[in-house]
TrEMBL record:
The keyword Transmembrane helix applies. It is found in: Membrane. CDD domains: SLC5sbd_u2. It is a multi-pass membrane protein. Belongs to the sodium:solute symporter (SSF) (TC 2.A.21) family. This is Solute:Na+ symporter, SSS family. It comes from the Bacteria. GO terms for molecular function: D-glucose:sodium symporter activity. It holds the Pfam family SSF. GO terms for cellular component: plasma membrane. It comes from Actinopolyspora righensis. The chain crosses the membrane at residues 12-34, 54-75, 87-108, 129-154, 160-179, 191-209, 246-266, 287-311, 331-354, 387-410, 416-438, 445-464, 476-498, 536-553.
């Protein structure tokens, strides 16, 4: 089990504790305020499809800004350096734009409550049930990562026992989701976004001051790790060595396409935020709005990882008391004064709860709408499914507590998270893309492609862990596993589809790509046609800005 070093213990005073208490009171207040709007399963699971784009957009990026982002990407910054920006610029922005411009009209207009439900309408119950089970398992595993990360941080920083930390965080997430449903989760995620940023900005600024500014970071990292450590593409040619252990092809195809598109376009914890928007225009703009703050998150996450590497040069090395996950807590312990310290601890708790809430809310939706309702208790009153949704939320939190300790064997939790994405999200994306863009795709092809596409990367990763496959980097393994998942799904699905009978075209209306459906603007509301709200402008603007953000790391 990996825990953070006792040397990170913080000295919090009454002011720091007061900030933390105020945050928890506000979180619960939002939950009980949101309760008044929850009257049906649509309200509980999708906020009644009533939220504006700026709210769902901030919730979209905040749902991803959990433990994996704060601790994991800072850990990646300390371990891999500037290569970490790939997870943002090629590993997020293009896929978020694709979701908003191409896929969202099909999700939203089909009135589905989840991603698996789309596969039910496109294929059959077998593909639907398989994808629902995969989603449920992945959701509680990822929720467990957030809980475990929070527990080890609070133990190191505040001296709280790990079981107590897990229970406190779990109970608060359980209360505000069970009481207020997705509306509570989303509005709390908006609050959490600003709290997290407010906590990380002063940490980054004080860290830069300590190491001599940006020039100090460049000089000191170059002296200790070499200039290549600050270049996103340096050493990525075939046969060349780099800390990431991957070449430009595996980065582009494995991370930039397979893992990225698999996560951002099919991960229901994210898609659910778009589906809760008030109309199609707002739903399409949700991931596009989120793309802009997303590409600047490295400034307050990855950069602190580099600063931690300078301040503690042996971080993550054998014999060191600090592993890579210690990067952010290390800076907090050494840099922040009281008051600001309380804000930083509150920001960490906000990030963990945002990540866990996103996965628990997606878990309760998928379990209730895609497993319980169609296969266990069909044709029950809506109030029954609302009750089930609340009960399964509690069960999801309990199971998340159990899965939290699976992450204990990973000194860099982002390595673990990317492993889960390559197992679960990539094959689902391959199946979904074939279903969306190929009318000839059949239910049997969807089922077997998804099943074998999931098993193949698990088998490959198992061989790596057993020492049968020898690779230098866990992230390199994840990128190869993602490519294997993608290729396996396609190789299995295409011949089966050609050998089986597809659905009649009349049954595929709105479920298979046509340009008319993709460009459908839906029911417009006042102001939706403003030039600055046009999805195409937002999407291509994000792509151009992401390319420009690569420039400092490509010289």
């Amino acid at each position: 089990m990996h825990t953070l070093a006792d040397g990170l213990r913080l000295s919090m005073n009454w002011m720091d504790s007061l900030i933390l208490v105020i945050y928890f009171v506000v979180v619960l207040g939002i939950a009980f305020a949101a309760k008044r709007s929850v009257h049906s399963t649509l309200d509980f699971f999708l906020s009644g499809r009533s939220l504006p784009a700026w709210v769902t957009g901030l919730a979209f990026v905040s749902a991803n800004l959990g433990a994996t982002e704060i601790l994991g990407m800072a850990a990646n910054g300390a371990q891999y350096g500037a290569y970490t920006v790939h997870w943002y610029l090629i590993g997020a922005i293009p896929a978020m734009v694709f979701l908003g411009l191409v896929m969202m009209p099909f999700y939203y207009n089909s009135k589905v409550r989840s991603v698996p439900e789309f596969l039910l309408r496109r294929f059959s119950s077998s593909s639907h049930l398989l994808s629902a089970v995969i989603f449920a398992v992945a959701s509680v595993l990822i929720a467990g990562v957030n809980l475990y990360a929070l527990a080890i941080v609070l133990q190191a920083l505040l001296g709280w026992p790990i079981p107590l930390s897990i229970v406190i965080a779990g109970v608060f997430v359980l209360i505000y989701i069970t009481v207020g449903g997705l509306t509570s989760a989303i509005y709390n995620e908006v609050l959490q976004f600003f709290v997290i940023v407010a906590a990380l900005v002063p940490l980054t600024v004080l860290g830069l001051i300590r190491v001599g500014g940006v020039s100090g970071v460049i000089d000191k990292v170059t002296a200790s790790e070499g200039a290549q450590f600050l270049s996103a593409w340096g050493g990525t040619g075939f046969g060349q060595d780099n800390p990431l252990g991957a070449n430009w092809l595996t980065i582009s195809l494995g991370l930039g396409f397979a893992i990225s598109f698999g996560y951002w376009t099919t991960n229901f914890a994210e898609v659910q935020r778009s589906l809760s928007a008030k109309n199609l225009s707002a739903a399409r703009r949700t991931p596009l709005i989120a793309a802009f703050p997303k590409m600047f998150i490295p400034l307050v996450v990855v950069l602190p990882g580099l600063i931690a590497l300078i301040m503690q040069p042996n971080i993550g090395q054998p014999g060191s008391q600090y592993d890579y996950n210690s990067a952010i807590p290390l800076l907090m312990a050494q840099l922040l004064p009281n008051g600001v310290l309380g804000l930083a601890v509150t920001g960490l708790m906000a990030s963990f709860m945002a990540g866990m809430a996103a996965n628990v809310s997606s878990f309760n939706t998928v379990f209730t709408a895609d497993i319980w309702e169609p296969y266990i208790k069909p044709n029950m009153p809506d109030s029954h499914y609302l009750t089930v949704g609340r009960v399964i939320t509690a069960i999801g939190v309990v199971v998340g507590i159990g899965t939290a300790f699976i992450a204990a064997s990973f000194s860099n939790i982002m390595n673990y998270m990317q492993t889960l994405f390559s197992f679960f999200n990539v094959p689902l994306f391959a199946t979904f893309i074939l279903a969306l863009f190929w009318k000839r795709m059949t239910a049997k092809a969807g089922f077997w492609g998804l099943l074998l596409g999931t098993l193949a990367p698990i088998a490959f990763y198992s061989m790596y862990r057993a020492g049968i496959v020898d690779m230098d980097s866990a992230q390199g393994v994840n990128m190869i596993a993602a490519i294997i998942a993608l290729v396996t799904d396609l190789v299995v699905s295409v011949p089966i589809a050609l050998a089986t009978t597809p659905k009649p075209e009349a049954e595929l209306v709105g479920l298979v790509y046509t340009r008319a459906d993709a460009t459908d603007s839906g029911e417009m509301q006042r102001g939706d046609d403003a030039w600055y709200r046009k999805p195409a402008l937002l999407g291509w603007g994000a792509i151009v800005l992401a390319v420009l953000c690569y420039v400092p790391f490509s010289l």
